[in-house]
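Fig. S4 source data, part A: sequence.
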Amino acid sequence: MGVSINGSVDADRGRVFASRAAAWAEGDLRTELVARVDAPVSVIGDGDAHALAITRLPNVRYGGIALSLGASLAFGALNSHGALIHPCGVTGWDLGHWRIVDDNTNTEAWWALGGHGLYDLEREHGDDAADLYAYRLASFLVDTVQMFRPRTVLLTGGIVVGLAEALHGPVAEQLQTLPNSVPTPRVVYSPSRDTALFGAAVAAGLALPEMR
């Protein structure tokens, strides 16, 4: 069984240190689940799950990064061979504390790019909210691409599904501002809110078809 959790997760030990979205899961989640289901269990962070979902894309080019945008922000990365890249500690990436500064916010990315930030824009700017959010995301993506130099970017999560094509123009426009030394990556917009399930299944060693 494969499980993904938004938060600070030690996948090697199946332990959840902290989760904004699922505080109930904090602790030795894998041990608890194995005792309940009597089967092998894999527990990984939501960002890593979305990154592993890249491996199920057709004609994918590695390395890659995944940004999941929903109630919060999750991030994961793959190297040039399609394997997960981890920071120096035992948990996955947390870019949620990066500060986003634009005309409408000066707050951390997990809020600004998550559901709370989008709601604030909708409340204050009405029909213009989607465009403002799209440029906010695009600016963040340009910085992230410059750091990780991916060949593929997967954008996924409920906000991506909800805003759909409203994101495409601003993201493509802002990626054209990358320095000449940074190749422009292929951007894939997931049509599913359940993309992490593909990655969780990959981590658990389950065979899956390609995502479309």
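Fig. S4 source data, part B ends here. The CA atoms of residues 16 and 27 lie 5 Å apart.
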